[in-house]
Inverse folding.
């Protein structure tokens, strides 16, 4: 029979479910003794009678600068700026990823640690130059993605989406020329953004502050729906987004929601 305690993140000889302090930083995973780790995370300088706010990464000070009840040690933000010339690691603006797909893939691999993605003004396409019409920006369940940055901001509130236009474009050949021309759009991607299946415990999937344009869903099945955004069994929140010149053969030129999806759409426009 398998041991009910499996995995040992800190290699202290105690498996995770039976270890009261997984990262050995002196702050207990279930510090409030409720029987459930994470239901009362330490914040605001608390160190007693509260749960470790980053249980697998040592952070004895429980620092939480933004007060979101996730410790700064786990509050990793990835940066994207197509003009960046640094290490392309996404760790800060100077070394930002130049392709949003790289940031989304990194977040999908390390979603426990990634708090959000900040994207600077520019035009981003999902195909990495391949002209693959099935390419799409696939959101990561539970992860917020914010546009509208100039690059260099230190706080989320400093961004200006209306000024720093951050464009997600399905115009893979860069030949639409701002027109709604079927001949020119025939090689565009089917869906600019895809929101994949999520569960209630993944948290909020958020897309905030983008222009979404050039999706051309003219194929069969789901590829005939949701040129701008296709939601499949997901409940994303979409805020301050502008949908421009997206098309779908069957339904939902801007957005199509399939398989019991229930998105929240706020302060968006469609042209």
């Amino acid at each position: 029979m398998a041991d009910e305690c499996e995995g040992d993140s800190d290699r202290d000889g105690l498996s995770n479910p039976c270890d009261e302090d997984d990262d050995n930083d002196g702050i207990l995973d279930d510090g409030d003794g409720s029987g459930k780790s994470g239901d009362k995370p330490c914040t605001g300088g608390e160190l007693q009678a509260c749960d470790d706010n980053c249980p697998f990464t040592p952070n004895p000070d429980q620092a939480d600068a933004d007060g979101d009840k996730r410790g700064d040690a786990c509050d990793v933000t990835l940066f994207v700026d197509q003009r960046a010339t640094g290490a392309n690691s996404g760790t800060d603006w100077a070394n930002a990823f130049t392709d949003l797909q790289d940031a989304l893939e990194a977040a999908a691999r390390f979603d426990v640690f990634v708090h959000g993605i900040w994207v600077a003004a520019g035009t981003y396409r999902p195909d990495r130059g391949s002209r693959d019409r099935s390419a799409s920006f696939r959101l990561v369940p539970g992860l917020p993605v914010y546009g509208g940055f100039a690059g260099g901001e230190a706080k989320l509130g400093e961004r200006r989406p209306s000024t720093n236009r951050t464009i997600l474009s399905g115009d893979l050949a860069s030949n639409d020329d701002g027109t709604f021309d079927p001949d020119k759009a025939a090689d565009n991607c089917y869906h600019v953004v895809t929101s994949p299946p999520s569960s209630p415990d993944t948290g909020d999937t958020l897309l905030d502050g983008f222009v979404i344009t050039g999706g051309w869903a003219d194929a069969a099945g789901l590829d005939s729906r949701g040129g701008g955004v296709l939601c499949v069994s997901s409940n994303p929140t979409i805020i301050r987004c502008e949908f421009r010149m997206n098309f779908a053969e069957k339904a939902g030129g801007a957005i199509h929601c399939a398989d019991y999806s229930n998105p929240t759409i706020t302060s968006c426009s469609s042209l």
In short: Residues 21 and 28 are 5 Å apart (CA to CA).
